[in-house]
# Entry
Amino acid sequence: MMNIRRGAGAYARVGVESAVMSADPHQLIVMLFDGAQAAINSARLHMEDGNRAAKGAAISKAIDIVNNGLAAALDHERGGDIAANLGQLYDYIARLLLQANLRDDIAKLDQAASLLDDIGSGWRELRHSSAELAGGA
# Structure
């Protein structure tokens, strides 16, 4: 059974790596939002099950994605106030996640997930609108 899981994990990693290699910048940002949401969902399940180590690892992964993925991708020179505001929001989300981890607070996890969902929806809509404009729709 362990070999099947290992093989499935390797197959999934190749799929993710292929998707990342072929993605444009907008797709990469959307993938970061998806990854953060998946980590938060995992943390929620582990929190409910009382698995503190796995919960902590999942929240750490979500914080890493927010800080070293989403926040690091901001272009403060060209992004102006929007980039600054997003940077502050990402910092707030990371603090919510940290508090959720320290206090086993599902409400803080849900608040972080909701904020990420709102921002991610904006990125998805931007991508959809850009595709329509490029296609002449």
Notes: Confidence is low (pLDDT under 50) at residues 1-16. The two ends are 50 Å apart (CA to CA). The chain has one domain: 24-135.
